[in-house]
Amino acid sequence: MEAFDVDTTSMKNRIGERRKDFPILQRQMNGKPLVFLDSAASSQKPDVVTSAIKSYYDKTHANVHRGVYQLSQEATDAFEKSRATIQSFINAKHSHEVIFVRGCTEGINLVASSYGDAFIREGDEVIITTLEHHSNIVPWQMVCEKKGANLKVVHVDEAGEIDLDDYKSKLSSKVKMVAVNHISNTLGTINPVKQMIDMAHELDIPVLVDGAQATPHMKIDVQALDADFYVFSGHKMYGPTGIGVLYGKEHWLNKMPPYHGGGEMIKTVTFEKTTYNELPFKFEAGTPNIADSIGLAAAVDYIGEIGLDVISEHENDLLNYGTDLLSSIEGMRFIGTAKAKAGVISFLVGDIHPYDIGTLLDKQGIAVRTGHHCTQPLMDHYGIPGTVRASFGLYNNMEDLDRLYEALTRAVNILS
After folding, report:
1. Is position 374 annotated as part of the catalytic site?
2. Is pTM beyond 0.85 here?
């Protein structure tokens, strides 16, 4: 983990220079310099990530684990080095506990399907929360419908914080899985997942943590959390699309059946019987996404070079500055005011529809997300159709928020 422990003072002085690493930020939109405030949906990519992918295709490409020739061995070494980089990044005990998947959604579906087939029965229960992304709702609904199990939802309060008393009341011997996000993509709430894991483990209930929004913003130590499963996507953390990670404790992954069948996940095949491969290959059927795995490792190295402590502090400064700035706009209503928050500001202004605000902001070069953010049940909880969401990455600065404030003020004046 040493690569991710850096001198925060020296790095903080240089984080502003990192904007130049992202070529897309030089673009203009509608004749205005781009202000990108939608990193919670998908972050932009630094040169080092795209260069790593191009270098792989230009110099190293071959299929992995299958060739005795040098090029295949070089590709295999690069691919498995990426796995070791991820292992260090999240402090997994073993590299074979790191499973490459297409993204957070596939990782959750893998666990819901594979674990669900093996361990969930009629009358059992699965616990989620009101804060969950659709990707951490629908897979559990599917397995519950298939098995005749029941999905239990833990409430959140007006601030967007999980009601731990409600959570405790729902824990029982019937519960076979708790699935909760680490950080809410819509509200930015940082959930008390360590406490929730400890409470579940008192009843021997495993916990899956959706870490899609956490890995770009804070240090993750899966052993310290004692998470049974932890999933995240590369494209949220300055890496490529189409690649993500499922971390699972070795003993759970060994007990779970394969998710897909085909090459790589087998040891032997006859027409009568197939013997499955060892971890991690048991869950990586077919030719993997080699190039984007290497790109993800490059993103992790990039984050590590800057330092997650530095990134977190920088984004917290942006959050505080942006919240203070926007609060002066008449009719401003913040949705999600948890004490512990990441770099997300979700809001409404008076009776103006969020789509209308987003459209006028776009005309001024400001990219924000509008709508329900794949959290429709959470929007129903607040009785609203959606929000305008500004979310930050390490490349954002105070000037971006000044631009947002000015553009939003103009939009509100037009729409009011």
Report:
1. yes
2. yes
